[in-house]
Design a protein that fits this description.
Radius of gyration: 29 Å
Helix content: 25-40%
Number of domains: 3
Number of strands: 27
Strand order of the largest sheet: 8-9-10-11-18-15-14-13
Number of helices: 17
Mean pLDDT: 88
Largest sheet: 8 strands, antiparallel
Distance between the termini: 66 Å
């Protein structure tokens, strides 16, 4: 379009395109902009620009003239001039790409070409400077390119632009682990924007240019959408983000429609507790929901829901958060714990510091439990291992740390995690349990590695200090500090207790730094927790004989039997949990 008549030809072609589109049932560009606008849920968008663009496209879809849709208080020429002299966000650049074909008469020749130049320059910079797995690259090099190609479809260059943009899109989905790491790191802040862009791009490419996504690509999009369903609180806010950061419901509506997966939307509705409870039985037989436990090793992010129908004991944890892993623990519509789970370790009186990233030891998920164990190297030869377990049907959670140090060393350990803003703590006068509550009791917290009663000696203590649940302990060479949290309110009025069990190996009672076991009781419901701290060998406790790193089971007092929930065998060697 470098001839003398380029502008006149452009006006003619855009007019034809606009007239042609009005005869179609649905223009893919305008349809996706209306269903899932780039401004949805984005804090970095120019609101006035987004509103004006929405009005412009809505008018075009209803066959009004562009001039009739232009808000009287919005000056497109001034906005175009400001665009050239600023650093626009991805959302603003996309918005301009969507509306530019409708603004030829409004902007005039010079400004229109100038805006197009800004958009193409931004796309080229993203194409050459950003890695394949970057969400900014797929937004600016794939979606923006497809939008411009469709808007200028009657021109020869649009074919090459569309092909290039589709290739970028395919490369992005092929990145798999690198892409998920980029999306989910930092609390998955980039996921909503990237998922929305990927869905818009897919539909525009499919309808506008006959590019049909392969099954593998649909699977990758489905995984992104499943993660997005997971990372939504009951009020629609995003996990690990401020409560005011909301997810647009249009995002999963669109994902459900384009990916033909009603389970995504249903999962979102159940997560936000807006779904009809009568659908529960139907869903379990007719509609496949996403997995209730998801973990991304490369991003260090895990979400463990008891189920999409049950809400007591949902944990989200970001192990790559700095300076300490961030955790959220919920019960129903109440946040129980929220914030950085910090730890302090001293070996023989000397402070230790973390000196590496958290690495997976074991991830296991089945119908009974979600379980993850991570470890981190510290100075002075110390290893810190951290366990998170959700017993899915029981509404109970185990949070535990294990400190492994060199021989003949004395360990002092303390960890703390903030209570949620609405939570308060009430410590029992006689036992070491703590009740977390707002207007009602919400959680019973039991330090099952310590003795139950406050009288007498104990290797540590649990207390709430300045709004943080704090647990400490002392030991030699190896130390296990477990905390049991019961979130099922129906059990709160029952008699409760916990006991440290005798553990033996070859008829010799094991020391506390070799293996430990505890029994937790709420009325008739009881559980056994076992942890081996030494070399792999067989131990006996409560009539159970096994060789494993970790074990949890339900105890039946009527006959003394144990129902196995999870057994982790040689986790540090195999990185595989077996139930």
């Amino acid at each position: 379009m470098d001839s003398e008549n380029a502008w006149g030809e452009l006006i003619v072609q855009l007019t034809r395109r606009q007239t042609s589109r009005r005869k179609l049932k649905a223009d893919p560009v305008w349809e996706m902009f209306s269903d899932l606008p780039p401004s949805a849920g984005n804090a970095d968008v120019d609101t006035a620009l987004a509103d004006a663009a929405a009005a412009l496209i809505a008018a075009a879809r209803t066959k009004e003239e562009a001039a009739e849709a232009k808000p009287s208080d919005f000056d497109w020429s001034a906005a175009a001039a400001a665009l050239s002299g600023s650093t626009p966000t991805e959302s603003d650049l996309l918005t301009w790409g969507y509306v530019l074909p409708l603004l030829a008469d409004t902007l005039g020749e010079a400004q229109w070409w100038e805006v197009l130049g800004v958009l193409k320059s931004a796309r080229q910079a993203a194409l050459t400077d950003l890695p394949f797995e970057s969400s900014r690259r797929v937004i600016l090099a794939a979606e923006l390119g497809l939008v411009l190609a469709w808007g200028l479809k009657n021109f020869q260059t649009s074919v090459r632009l569309a092909e290039s943009s589709w290739n970028v899109y395919c490369e992005y989905l092929e990145c798999e682990d690198d892409r998920l790491q980029e999306l989910l790191s930092g609390g998955a802040q980039r996921l909503p924007k990237a998922l929305a862009s990927a869905l818009r791009s897919m539909q525009i490419a499919r309808v506008g240019f006959k590019h049909k996504p392969a099954n593998e690509q649909l699977g990758e999009l489905n995984e992104m959408a499943a993660w997005q369903s997971h990372l939504v609180r009951w009020d629609g806010s995003l996990c690990l983000q401020p409560m005011e950061t909301k997810l647009s419901s249009d995002l999963l509506d669109t994902a459900t429609r384009l990916l033909k997966d009603p389970g995504l939307r249903m999962a979102y509705d159940f997560a936000c507790r807006t779904a009809d409870k009568a659908l529960k039985n139907k869903l379990t037989t007719e509609i496949e929901l996403p997995e209730s436990g998801m973990y991304c090793d490369s991003a260090g992010l895990v979400s463990m829901r008891p189920s999409w129908f049950r809400h007591h004991g949902w944990i989200v944890a970001d192990f790559h958060s700095q300076p300490a892993p961030r955790i959220e623990l919920s019960a129903g519509k109440r946040m129980i714990l929220e914030g950085a789970w910090e730890a302090t370790i001293q070996i023989d009186g000397q402070d230790c510091q973390p000196r590496g990233d958290w690495e997976e030891v074991c991830w296991h998920s089945d119908d009974d439990v979600h379980y993850i164990e991570m470890e981190q190297c510290w100075t002075h030869g110390v290893t810190l291992q951290r366990q998170l377990m959700v017993i899915r049907e029981d509404g109970a959670v185990l949070l535990a740390d294990t400190v492994l140090s060199p021989d003949a060393s004395e360990i002092f350990y303390r960890s703390s995690v903030p209570l949620a803003a609405t939570m308060q703590a009430a410590a029992d006068e006689e036992t070491r349990e703590v009740v977390l509550h707002d207007n009602k009791p919400r959680a019973m917290v039991l330090p099952i590695g310590l003795s139950e009663w406050r009288v007498g000696r104990s290797p540590g203590k649990m207390e709430v200090v300045e709004g943080r649940l704090t647990v400490s302990g002392r030991g030699e060479r190896r130390l296990y500090v477990p905390v049991w949290i019961d979130l099922e309110r129906r059990r709160f009025d029952r008699p409760r207790t916990w006991r440290n069990l005798t553990v033996a190996s070859r008829l010799v009672i094991a020391k506390a730094n070799e293996a430990v076991a505890s029994r937790v009781q709420f009325g008739s419901e009881q559980w056994i927790v076992f942890r081996s701290l030494s070399e792999h060998k067989a131990y006996t406790f409560c009539g159970k004989h096994l060789a494993a790193d970790f074990y949890c089971g339900r105890f039946d007092p009527s006959d003394g039997s144990l129902e196995d929930l999870v057994t982790v065998e040689n986790a540090s060697d195999s990185q595989d949990g077996n139930a």
